[in-house]
Amino acid sequence: MKHFTSVTQLGDLKDAFAAAKMVKEAPFADKALGENKTLLLVFFNNSLRTRLSTQKAGLNLGMNVIVLDVNQGAWKLETERGVIMDGDKSEHLLEAIPVMGCYCDMIGVRSFARFENKKDDYEEVILNQFIRYSGKPVFSMEAATRHPLQTFADMITIEEYKKTARPKVVMTWAPHPKALPQAVPNSFAEGLNMTDYDFVIANPEGYDLAPEFVGKAKVTHNQDEALEGADFVYAKNWSAYEGDNYGKVLNMDRSWTVSKEKMALTNNAYFMHCLPVRRNMIVTDDVIEAPTSLVIPEAANRVVSAQTVIKKLLQDNY
Ligand code: AN0
Ligand code: CP
């Protein structure tokens, strides 16, 4: 593996889960692997979990870690080629990326969809420029269309808590006041499509995800029907993908909030969310605080997913 941008690059899931288990059981066993290697984490957007868990993963592997917040202290970056740079942007990404590459051995990038141009977002223009011009192994810390380290952590968590070989997993849209990317739900769907679980996506009309990510999942616009018999409820908001509504908030229908009444329809399901979560929009206080809420174990597994992936990148590239 040269770069990591999608859970599909994990290859055989059994092997990936076994590798993750090894990392979890002995987090410091590979301290020598990253010795004298520098990991650079570049953030174009805010983060709590990804920032801390990926740093921790690098440190566990013996790496030196540098974090750069592009929007806080670095020069404002132009990303379009051909632009006459007479505005407020002092530097072009096409110089900044190879410069960053000079200072490190591996780069993690967080760069959300911008909702300016669907094609650019879905072609992963920013992430691909890092891959092309940095000269270093690159991994996604949530890009425009996917959040693979989150998905891997989610899948490890399901693996740890599932009570049957083929659980019913329901990913449900829930309301949120701001336009959020489709990266987390796209990526979760991509990952779940690698399993033989019973996977259902529930969202209001107008919020269907891109077909290449939906894959073989069942899609319904009826949340109650979807929740029936669910073993895991994975809640997430996303903005519209379809047509001219791309990146728009079409409604904030709180009848889609995951509540105690909604959870009563399930098979005593576990509740999951990648966090950060808006309480009483996405999920009620009682559901997220219940013993069946997995949000904290999920977040804890972000170290495991990041460390498993960085370890593989170190092994395969150095
Ligand atoms: C981001 C999103 O929905 O993609 C990050 C989640 C990990 N969420 C927010 O911006 C609130
Ligand atoms: N789940 C997740 O990626 O959280 P952050 O945005 O805080 O990194």
Describe the overall structure:
Helices cover 36% and strands 14% of the residues. It is α/β, with parallel strands linked by helices and 318 residues long. It has two domains: 156 residues, Aspartate/ornithine carbamoyltransferase (Rossmann fold, 3-Layer(aba) Sandwich), CATH 3.40.50; 149 residues, Rossmann fold (3-Layer(aba) Sandwich), CATH 3.40.50. The strands form three sheets. A five-stranded parallel β-sheet has the order 9-8-7-10-11. A four-stranded parallel β-sheet has the order 2-1-5-6, sandwiched between helices. It has a two-stranded parallel ribbon with strand order 3-4. Helix 2 links the parallel strand 1 and strand 2. The longest helix is centred in the last third of the chain and has 23 residues. The protein is globular. The relative contact order is 0.16. Bound molecules: N-acetyl-L-norvaline and phosphoric acid mono(formamide)ester (CP). The site of phosphoric acid mono(formamide)ester has 10 residues, from helix 2.
Domain unit count: 2
Strand order of the largest sheet: 9-8-7-10-11
Order of helices and strands: HEHEEEHEHHEHEHEHEHEHEHH
Specify the CATH architecture of the largest domain.
Answer: 3-Layer(aba) Sandwich
